[in-house]
Amino acid sequence: MQQVQAGRHAAFEELVARYRPALVRVAVSKLGDRGLGEDAAQETLLAAFAARHTFNPRYSFRTWLWTILLRLCALQWKKQRARWTSQSIGNSLGAEELPATGESALDGLLRHERSALLLRALAALPEPQADALRLRFFAGLSYDEIAATMGSSVSGAKQRVKHGLERLAERLRTLQGVES
Fold first, then answer.
1. 180/178 Cα distance (integer angstroms)
2. Residue 139: which of 128, 149, 154 has the closest Cα?
3. What angle do CA 155, 26, 142 make, to 5 degrees?
4. Domains of the chain (ranges plus CATH)?
5. Measured on CA atoms in the order 116, 121, 124, 127, is the torsion positive or negative?
6. For 71-87, how does the pLDDT look when each residue is reduced to its tens digit (9 = 90+)?
């Protein structure tokens, strides 16, 4: 990012290539829609480039970027909340959720259903816990990075992940019982 700030705007392409896939995964999980997730990731990258002069190199670029994504997703989520249904969450998965080469149609369908179930369960968690889980497992952030992104202590980030996993497991058991 320091290169981008110095005027080497082409260096931003490397940042886009590095972070875009994880940004999309987290945004799709948070927003429940592939198109909205792609848009949120794109808006995040555009916002980061537009605000490049505000980035402080003493801090983590990664943390700064995730903070932008979570804020944009929160704004988008508020706009879309009234239109969401459990069906839209279940249909949110994109091309990478199609059966992989060598995977049977049944295996692909089962994987898709498990993914939809996970997204539904995540959507039912309190937002801080769900976001902490998304950042930890979809984005691969460390607890230090989660804490910085969410404005909490490292201990707080760990607690959000722990309690989120506990609630997620409980929610998945409930959903599986209803949908089995």
1. 6
2. 149
3. 30
4. 1-82 (1.10.1740.10), 104-180 (1.10.10.10)
5. negative
6. 999 888 777 655 544 44
